[in-house]
Write a structure and sequence with these properties.
1011 residues; alpha/beta; five-stranded antiparallel sheet; 44% helix; 12% strand
């Protein structure tokens, strides 16, 4: 039995509690979180560092920011410091603090105004970049600065780091598009910073308050230090961000304080709103994808391509390219990067071409391809062109995932960020990279490289294990070496990802100008209370140093590599935050989308699991051995101890409860297992946690009911009227709610057993199949129907049997074998292993005869190739295929329909199918295409049911909210002329519950169309 786990108490907690009460008294309307779980999740970003904050504040608007400043100004709270946080994807610890985090992403995410005539958008700080662009698209506009984290990066965060990425040579950085900033200063001043002409500047400088002081200080420094500023700031596309005195005067002569604020990382003010310049969407676009034998040739060619005035050039090395090929995105873009007879490409250039019309686009493409064709024998292996918008977006998606993909390697040595965004003049990039590689090669390190070569920016992540004593010093050694290299080539260490913990190098880069930066800091923040230790110190407090801030590796060392490896990448989450995608149509992560709570995301759950493992390790508890011992223990003796632990008040502060609360909201959809670049699999480690947690505490009543469903459902099917009365009557529903269950489906009158018998379909016992001849086996298939499809939706199985018969193949029905998914989801792992081993024995006997196995429900079917595959005792010799996989492999046998069709056919796929079997959707398209039908695959997120999740009372509100986020609108489009289908049984159940509509499975439609 695992012990009670309690983290060490923070000495600031008493003061923080008083601070929270004072905020409430002043009228703070946002959320305040001080529990251990929330603080643990906010203690990391996408960097190598870890700092646990004292609390997290989630303001609802500018008034809340002013209240925070007012409370901080009181003498009782003079020791409290704050740091802003947006998407939490910083690679250098910009938002990490031991003070109080101010996170605007949860509530301050409103798009206040879009003016399409003036091409201006006004947004709150927590608006996500892609969220803004989605709202701008109907107007033909977009917010231009591009970055790989655009689906979760907030505008406030972009401004705080002056973010940019691909296309910056054309569009510039975030600061180039900021027209105005509404900021709250540390004294509570609420100020709109906009460019000022001379008269307006003098008027503001005359003010006697903090704002007047700031403008006087900055204007004086800009004038007095003009020559020094000119000499200090490099003439780069990626000039030094934050405190940008070089651009305080705009080209039109106006004074723009936003040059100081953009890139200041929350050290000067809290950003409440931003007024942004937005641009017309490019009318025409294309990507030229060029393959090379080596990365250096790709880099050399990139310089020539840049000289041709293309929109952007991105270069990717063989390491990143290889990882991309194993990622979910590759299926959609593989044809643009074909394998060459001479061997795989070891570098690629992605060249973006933009134009105002089709003719201009073709002319520009021809200019580039003419040069490429002329140099083909010597320079590259070949190229392809992507012209369609979905193709272009898919390729850019691969490039955006590059940072996360570098973390998707086996073992504890993994690429980590700390020197990943250097910038040098593009003409020096090749020489610079050569020396950079030599520096890393001298240490015997592996690494991946990619970058915006048109801007001279290189992204590099050396592979280290920062739990190792010999690897930690390399952070300092490599950082110092890279700093020297950037200085040698006239570049900067921080080309686009901010300074953060790397601020110790600021005095060296700014030299004699650094005291002026300190003066600016003091003018804005006299008490040095805003994100102290970063960029410039306004007090005696020193700047942070890269080897003095706690590393994640310091804590991971306690856990140990064996246990880290045993818990499904939970401890290897690198914090890239792909699971924070704002888009409701993206499958990952539904619980975060519904709640806005980062604890309820893969990153949040991984952070909690990692801390839980660390606390166990401190108590010298190996969770693997504990699970084994728990399975052997006397069940009844253990029950008594679980009752005592559940009732004992001393256990209320057990950290395990906070972990369980986060796990409770997981839908076990496995979108993270498929979509997370690092392949963090929450359902996998969640089940391991639940097994141990409920070895110490009592389970809710619903758990044993759900866990036994595959055993009890066939028994209940014998008494359908009684079951339907129980689930359909008010009294029955009330009784089920007491057990924690709701929205249970009714059983139809139709019987799979009777219908199969009528069709001549027999039960597939190994003994019967062994009697078949080789020819008969070649024309046989065994349908592995899950218990839910069998008893709740037999019409789908029957349609599959009928279609298979029409194809001239003889279907058989597998015997009733437990799949075990419900057991796995709820942490009954001992029972799951036993049931899975039994099923494997049966299924393997059939597959050994060469007869294919085909499942019905995607979620249940994919359990055989994920949960089963994770167990040596249950690993199948041959896969259980999805319906469409088998049908697509037998496409030539599919009969042609008798008539043509006018209807539109739309498929709403299951999340697990979409993210864990990416080729599956294309296979459905091929099947409908064979009948002369173009299948529309709807871009939808989670329906909210997710197996048993939506049938649990505690989850129903989240379930219904998720359905409303993307599925409801698609179901509303259903009509006689638009046939809407869904592959998942749980999805169809949710539609029936929410909209009282029957949604067919595509196999039913295919069978009906063929007639």
């Amino acid at each position: 039995m695992i012990p009670r786990l309690v983290s060490a108490k923070d000495s600031l907690q008493h003061q923080i509690g008083a601070f929270a009460r004072r905020l409430a008294a002043l009228g703070f309307c946002g959320d305040v979180e001080m529990d251990e779980g929330a603080r643990t999740v906010a203690s990391t970003d996408n960097s190598i560092y870890q700092l646990k904050p004292a609390a997290i504040l989630y303001p609802r608007g500018a008034d809340d920011l002013k209240i925070i400043a007012a409370a901080m100004s009181e003498p009782a709270f003079s020791d409290i410091t704050i740091a802003p946080r947006g998407g939490g994807t910083g690679t250098n610890g910009q938002s990490l603090t031991s003070g109080v985090v101010v996170d605007c992403s949860r509530h301050m995410n409103r798009i206040v105004e879009i003016d399409p005539v003036r091409k201006i958008a006004r947004v709150e700080a927590g608006v996500v970049k892609d969220q803004l662009n989605k709202a701008l698209k109907p107007y033909g506009l977009f917010f231009a600065p591009e970055l790989s984290t655009s689906n979760r990066a907030t505008i406030g965060g972009m401004i705080s780091t002056d973010a940019c990425g691909q296309g910056s040579c054309l569009y510039g950085k975030t600061s180039n598009h900021v027209l105005g900033l509404r900021v709250v200063l540390s004294d509570g001043s609420d100020w709109w910073s906009r460019p000022l002409n001379g008269a307006a500047l003098e008027e503001i400088k005359a003010r006697p308050d903090r704002i007047g002081e700031i403008y006087r200080a900055v204007d004086r420094i800009a004038n007095d230090k003009r020559d020094l500023i000119e000499a200090t700031f490099p003439k780069l596309n990626r000039y030094m961000t934050g405190y940008d005195l070089a651009h305080i005067r705009r080209e039109d002569g106006r004074f723009d304080l936003n040059a100081i604020l953009c890139g200041s990382e929350g050290t000067l003010a809290m950003i409440a709103e931003a007024e942004l310049n937005v641009l017309p969407l490019p009318a025409q676009a294309a990507l030229i994808n060029i393959r090379y034998d080596d990365f250096n040739t790709a880099l050399e060619d990139a310089r020539l391509l840049v000289a041709m005035k293309v929109a952007s050039v991105e270069t990717v090395d063989e390491k990143v390219l290889g990882l991309a090929k194993a990622d979910i995105v590759w299926t959609g873009i593989a044809r643009f990067f074909p394998e060459d007879p001479s061997g795989p490409a070891n570098g690629i250039n992605i060249v973006e071409v933009l134009a105002d019309d089709h003719a201009e686009l073709e002319r520009k493409l021809a200019e580039v391809t003419t040069v490429l064709d002329a140099g083909a024998p010597a320079r590259h292996k070949g190229y392809t062109i992507a012209r369609e918008r979905p193709e272009i977006e898919a390729i850019w998606s691969m490039r955006k995932r590059a940072v996360g993909l570098l973390g998707n390697v086996e073992g504890p040595v993994r690429p980590v960020p700390f020197v990943e965004d250097t910038a040098v003049p593009p003409e020096h990039l090749a020489a610079y990279i050569s020396e950079f590689r030599a520096l890393l090669d001298a240490e015997g390190l592996e690494y991946g490289m990619f970058g915006h070569v048109d801007a001279g920016v290189l992204h590099v992540r050396p592979a280290l294990d920062l739990t190792r004593g010999d690897h930690q010093p390399l952070v300092r050694k490599i950082s110092d070496g890279v700093v020297a290299l950037t200085r040698k080539y006239g570049g900067v260490l921080w080309g686009e990802h901010g300074k953060g913990v790397r601020s110790e190098y600021v005095p060296d880069y700014f030299g004699d100008l650094y005291p002026s930066l300190q003066e600016i800091k003091r003018a804005f923040d006299p008490g040095d209370r805003l994100n102290p230790g970063k960029i410039a110190s306004g007090s005696s407090r020193p700047l942070l140093k890269i080897d003095e801030v706690p590393l994640r590796g310091d804590l991971d060392r306690i856990i140990g590599n064996d246990i880290r490896a045993a818990f499904d990448n939970a401890a290897y989450c690198n914090g890239n935050g792909a699971c924070f995608d704002f888009d409701a149509a993206s499958p990952m992560c539904p619980s975060f989308k519904a709640t806005g709570d980062r604890r309820y995301s893969p990153k949040g759950r991984a952070a909690l699991m990692r801390e839980w493992l660390r606390l166990l390790a401190e108590r010298r508890v190996d969770p693997r051995r504990e699970a084994e011992a728990q399975r052997r223990a006397n069940r009844f003796a253990n029950l008594f101890r679980r009752v005592i632990n559940s009732l004992n008040p001393a256990n209320r502060d057990d950290f395990s409860h906070e972990v369980r609360a986060a796990m409770d909201t997981c839908l076990a959809c496995k979108a993270c297992a498929g979509q997370c670049p690092v392949k963090v699999s929450v359902p996998a480690f969640r089940s391991k946690f639940l097994e141990l947690y409920y070895g110490r505490y009592l389970r809710p009543l619903k758990d044993p009911i759900v866990a036994a469903i595959e055993t009890t459902l066939p028994l209940m099917a014998r008494f359908k009227p009684a079951y339907n009365l129980l689930t359909g009557s008010g009294a029955g529903r009330a009784l089920m709610r007491l057990a924690g269950l709701t929205a249970l489906p009714a059983m139809p009158a139709i019987s799979l057993e009777r219908e199969a018998d009528r069709l001549g379909v027999r039960i597939a016992t190994p003994e019967q199949l062994e009697k078949l001849s080789e020819e008969e086996r070649a024309r046989a298939v065994v349908i592995v129907a899950d218990v839910f499809s069998t008893h709740f939706d037999p019409a789908v199985v029957i349609a599959a049997l009928k279609l298979i018969l029409k194809m001239g193949v003889k279907p058989w029905l597998a015997t009733s074998q437990p799949n075990g998914k419900a057991l796995h989801v709820h942490g009954y792992l001992g029972r799951f292993e036993k049931e899975a081993a039994k099923s494997r024995d049966y299924l393997d006997r059939i597959s050994q005869m060469g007869i294919p196995l085909v499942g019905i429900d995607p979620s249940m079917t994919l359990t055989y190739r994920s949960e089963y595959a994770a167990l040596p005792s249950a690993r199948l010799q041959a896969p259980v295929l999805l319906l469409q996989e088998w049908l697509a492999a037998n496409l030539e046998r599919l009969p042609q329909p008798r008539t043509s069709f006018q209807e539109r056919f739309t498929l709403l796929p299951h999340c697990t199918e979409r993210t864990n079997a990416p080729a599956a959707l294309k296979q459905w398209s091929l099947l409908f295409q064979k009948l002369g039908i173009k299948l529309d695959i709807a871009d939808v997120g989670c329906c909210g049911m997710a197996g048993t999740f939506g049938h649990e009372v505690r989850n129903r509100a989240i379930s219904e909210k998720l359905y409303a986020m993307s599925w409801q609108a698609k179901i509303a489009e259903k009509s006689d002329q638009n046939v809407v289908m869904a592959t998942g049984f749980s999805c169809r159940s949710q539609v029936a519950k929410m909209d009282r509509q029957t949604t067919p499975h595509p196999i039913e439609i295919l069978n009906g169309l063929i007639g």
